[in-house]
Specification:
Layout lengths: L2 H7 L40 H14 L3 E5 L2 H9 L7 E5 L4 H14 L2 E5 L4 H7 L4 E7 L11 H11 L2 E5 L4 H4 L9 E5 L13 E5 L2 H14 L5 H11 L2 H19 L5 E5 L9 H7 L6 E6 L2 H10 L4 E2 L9 E3 L11 H6 L6 E5 L5 H12 L1
Parallel strand pairs: 2-3, 2-4, 4-5, 5-6, 10-11
Antiparallel strand pairs: 1-7, 6-7, 8-9, 9-12, 11-12
The chain binds pyridoxal-5'-phosphate.
The site of pyridoxal-5'-phosphate (PLP) has 14 residues, from helix 3.
GO molecular function: cysteine-S-conjugate beta-lyase activity; pyridoxal phosphate binding; transaminase activity
Protein name: cysteine-S-conjugate beta-lyase
Family: Belongs to the trans-sulfuration enzymes family.
Length: 377
């Protein structure tokens, strides 16, 4: 099955009872058992619910995995995955990792005994140099946020295999439509499903997917033990959102490409970060491992005054945290996604006070451009 068909039909047969095309929403916390010796497939809904299972199978199928797990947020998926490790273990993490991931590693897991070294993952030698005997995984985001840096996934996988450790990828920005890390040899794919997967700015959710059933079982154990599961109503909304993933990604990406071409000509824009630009240092690597540049880009504005005018002046793009919705969103990493990072760390990573991130939605790109034009031209 091709991706678009899989989005609509997946592995789910049409409801055998009534033929409902939309997956039934099971609002039940427990399931009655018929006999003492033979329990049904579901018992208590923290461990499993049919609506959640439909979504978990859908995301596993789209990523080319065997086990998919749905969590209450992207951070719940990420944190639950970190719990498969033990005190004393160590991770090598890309330095411009999502702010919340940086926070949970630096302030929560560090006191629990799981430590992390942050490196410039665009440089495989930097990753290699940070691997220690107690290192258990390489944790990556590509493209990264907000500087859209590209990490060579097959290169990182090769390093991980040499050391017998895992490769974990947060695939939120690309979605399985544009990039499938499991097919490149990575072990665990994570998502903030809040963004493109659900796509309608109305659910907070997260996913973990593995190809290896045993590894999937370890995360499933934590999902049930720690309990940060996604509720059935949210699962149903994400099942609906997923059906249009391909058309949304295609349209938003086409818009992003048009907007980047326009931004390049604007005197108020000094630098653009987008993996679709040939001058992007990761252009070739990205083209080998993903099928498109995606719908998220960042740019630097000439000065702080203009940055403020743009963010406060636009009427169509929301000035907000988040990305991946049908609405375009302009965000300000220094005070939003990376507010959890101390200013010195942020500056050292190149996240300036004049950096703006745009997630292209489904509006007509000409209207989005006209909306930004008075502030950048
Ligand atoms: C938003 C985001 C997260 C966190 O997900 P939540 O659903 O907000 O908990 C993690 N990684 C990336 C890349 C994100 O954009």
């Amino acid at each position: 099955m091709k991706f678009a068909t899989q989005l609509i039909h997946g592995d789910q047969p049409i409801d055998p009872e009534f033929g409902s095309l939309s997956h039934p929403l099971y609002l039940s916390s427990t399931f009655a058992q018929r006999s003492l010796d033979d329990f049904g497939r579901f018992d208590y809904a923290r461990s499993g619910n049919p609506t959640r299972e439909a979504l978990e199978e859908a995301i596993a199928g789209l990523e080319g995995g065997t086990v998919g797990l749905a969590f209450a947020s992207g951070m719940a998926a990420i944190s639950s995955t970190f719990m498969i490790f033990a005190p004393g273990d160590h991770l090598v993490v890309c330095e411009d990792v999502y702010g919340g991931t940086f926070r949970v590693l630096s302030n929560v897991f560090s006191s629990w005994g799981l430590t992390a070294t942050f490196v410039d993952a665009t440089d495989l030698n930097a990753i290699a140099a940070a691997i220690r005997p107690e290192t258990k995984a390489i944790y990556l985001e590509t493209p990264s946020n907000p500087l859209i840096k590209i990490t060579d996934l097959p290169g990182a996988v090769e390093l991980a295999k040499q050391h017998g450790i895992l490769t974990i990828v947060d695939n939120t920005f690309m979605t399985p439509y544009l990039q499938r890390p499991l097919e490149l040899g990575c072990d665990i794919v994570l998502h903030s499903g809040t963004k493109f997967l659900n796509g309608h700015s109305d659910v907070i959710c997260g996913f973990a997917v593995t190809k290896d059933p045993e590894l999937g079982k370890r995360i499933r154990y934590i999902q049930n033990a720690f309990g940060a599961i996604l509720g059935p109503q949210d699962c149903w909304l994400v099942l609906r959102g997923l059906k249009t993933l391909k058309v949304r990604m295609e349209e938003s990406q086409a818009s992003a490409i048009k907007i980047v071409a326009w931004l390049k000509e604007q005197p108020g824009v000094t630098r653009i970060y987008y993996p679709g630009l040939e001058e992007h240092p990761g252009f070739e690597v990205h083209r080998r491992q993903a099928s498109g540049p995606g719908a998220v880009l960042s740019f630097e504005v000439s000065d702080l005054e203009r940055t403020k005018r743009l963010l406060e002046g636009v009427k169509l793009s929301a000035f907000a945290v988040s990305l991946g919705g049908v609405e375009s969103i302009l965000s300000y990493p220094a005070k939003m996604s990376h507010a959890a990072m101390p200013p010195a760390e942020r500056e050292a990573r190149g996240i300036k006070d004049t950096l703006v991130r745009l997630s292209a939605g489904l509006e007509d790109p000409e209207d989005l451009i006209a909306d930004m034009a008075p502030h950048l031209s």
